[in-house]
Amino acid sequence: MTEVHKKLAFFFLDGDHASAWEIVKEDLAAGKNTMEIFEELFTPAMGVIGEMWEDNSITVADEHLATSTCDFVLSRYQHDVTQKRKDPQNGRKALFLCVQDENHYLGLKMIDLLFKEKGWTTKFLGCNLPLEYAVSAAEKWKPDVIGLSFTTAYRVSSLAGYIEQLEALDHRPTVLLGGRLVPLHDFKMLCSEHTKLIPSLEDLNGWLNYGFSRKEQIPN
Ligand code: B12
Question: Which of ligand 1's atoms lies nearest the C-alpha of 155?
């Protein structure tokens, strides 16, 4: 963690949207792209919050304020930056959600913005979505991709059900699984070839640039 991560974490904890935004503006002025800003600035700053919660120097109430401040800054990023940087619409659709009782959605919100920037039409369904509603939303809208975010280890059995049912939908979407635990554990046994495990934003970039179009050329 660098000083800038700690500074941003303290602005999040103070609910200081304006100062947090100034830090983002510095990265934008330095020519950083969205992936770099999300992976190298926001994610470690939220990691600082996690460490402070672990050593009891902040409470869950503080974590909630930090979350809502970070969320606001991401929405501002969408409004001020994503809108201007967007590639032309590519006609593809992506749906994003977290499994039931999973409340960690900030990472998924970043992924939603990255897809928007790449010209996808997206729907961000946020945290804690029961499986039946995930299935019915996907059946109705027929997204090419369904992105799931996985953070808390004890929800792995619930995750398996989501992957199984979403992969099996009639229109055969690609399921993408990302989140804090994906680079740390092997989730292959939960997935068929219709699910891609995405351990980092660099992997996501590769998949967005090459993986998805290859899938279009080689029918399953
Ligand atoms: C903020 C926070 C909360 C907030 C929720 C924030 C929110 N609404 O999103 C609140 C306060 C509600 C919360 C609650 C809890 N939390 Co919490 N939380 C955090 C904290 C500090 C930050 C999470 C975060 O936003 N990180 C930043 C994002 C950007 O990182 P990320 O999710 O990994 O996403 C990146 C990648 O993984 C990837 N990605 C993410 N999703 C996807 C999806 C796809 C498709 C792709 C391609 C990529 C991708 O993209 C992102 C870009 O870098 C973490 C600590 C940490 N190190 O992360 C703990 C942490 C995750 N929480 C933890 C725990 C234990 C809890 C609680 C059980 C207890 C508590 N602290 O109150 C509850 C459980 C709530 C629940 N039912 O889900 C533990 C989890 C341990 C574990 N693995 O099981 C952590 C690690 C804290 C710790 N050090 O122990 N938490």
Answer: 84
